[in-house]
Amino acid sequence: MDGNFNKNDLERVVSADKAHVWHHLTQHKPFETGEPRIIIEGKDMRVWDQNGKEYIDAVSGAVWTVNVGYGRKRIADAVHAQLMKVCYFANSGGSIPGALFAEKLIDKMPGMSRVYYTNSGSEANEKAFKMVRQIAHKKYGGKKTKILYRDRDYHGSTLAAMSAGGQDERNMQYGPFAPDFVRVPHCMEYRKHELGLEHLSGREFGIAAANQIEDVILREGPETVGSLCLEPVTAGGGVIEAPEGYWERVQEICKQYNVLLHIDEVVCGVGRTGTEWFGYQHYGIKPDFVTMAKGVASGYAAIACMVTTEEVFAHFKDNPDDKLNHFRDISTFGGCTAGPAAALENMAIIEEENLLENCTVMGERMMGNLQALMEKHEIIGDVRGKGLFLGAELVTNRETKEPADEKDVMAVVADCGAQGVIIGAANRSIPGRNNVLCFSPALIATAEDIDAITDAVDKALTKVFG
């Protein structure tokens, strides 16, 4: 960390923060006697707090966002240059970076056609929900309005997004929720006993898990179901990759019952899973909607996108004489030009530095390291994930798969932080199932970074569990 911040400046910052800032996902009572952590500076994979402590950031800004690392001057310069030309104009009009990034993005997404700009992943998902509902009224007499979502998946923090939220602790105390959102079972093979499918494995399990979605559609009535919203790899719900056969069967079901498929790439999108630009592309999925946010500009500017097909888009221009026919929606900050300007540079960096390949190679190294830790520590019951998006599930008994206590899991996170490594964990999300350590280092991670992260986890597990 450089010397730009003197002690008096930092004391004022801490005082102002304690007095006036309401932090996300945070209980503030401890700040009456202690200090919040304030990140002062970041460079590559490292960040520094107000006390000068250096951390390796193994979760890309704590919420899976800073994919290309901190301190990218070329992104900051591109944003500055664009802001000096025009900072904002409502997206009822257009902008140069908006047009150019949409073109570049669609080039990476064969089969998709249109980009709707918005300012957060939650809002991007709501745009898709609204489109599904409007299509139901335009085409199906208002009947095909139900939106299916999956247990353990997460789609945002607004009331409609929470209505499609499969993490019950995140939803507690915020109901009642919007009607016609219906949950389907998770597809986690490690906990297949929860689904009554413990006798199956591999592809047979994957098909059976998908068939449970069909069961829900038939129970609700196919004529009432408009869309199915899923994460390609479940993120905060436990870093869950669907088993073989699952996605193939899901698409067959959607086609059979005329259900639109909405893939939420807010976490997985733009390189996080390695090799491909988007998580869904690993599995041969052909979605009707794809939503994205976090890694689109690596946090250098706010941007989110709802991307859809020309077929979906056509529903909203088929009768221009009807004043209510088009998609009557606006996202104020979807008109900011900084987001697509940053996103263009972000994507260029990923291409020029071969970060999809690096993500794959470093992801394999991290998976190997975590598997070695599983051999050493009985508390690890399973490791899983894709690319640089990995999880380690902690259990007190490998036979019964009894989840480790959330307090102990968070003690591992805290000990890693004390060592100077920031990792994540599923917490305050799923009752009795907040037992997964989460890792999502920047796509620029080196072998030394990966080893330092897993070494810290090794020491923390030893300290907390022996």
UniProtKB/TrEMBL annotation:
Alphabetized UniProt keyword annotations: Aminotransferase, Pyridoxal phosphate, Pyruvate, Transferase
Protein EC: 2.6.1.77
Pfam families: Aminotran_3
Classification via InterPro entries: Aminotrans_3, Aminotrans_3_PPA_site, PyrdxlP-dep_Trfase, PyrdxlP-dep_Trfase_major, PyrdxlP-dep_Trfase_small
Record GO terms (molecular function): pyridoxal phosphate binding; taurine-pyruvate aminotransferase activity
Top enzyme category: transferase
Cofactor(s) required for function per UniProt: pyridoxal 5'-phosphate
Family: Belongs to the class-III pyridoxal-phosphate-dependent aminotransferase family.
The protein's name in its UniProt record: Taurine--pyruvate aminotransferase
Organism: Shimia thalassica
Gene label: tpa_6
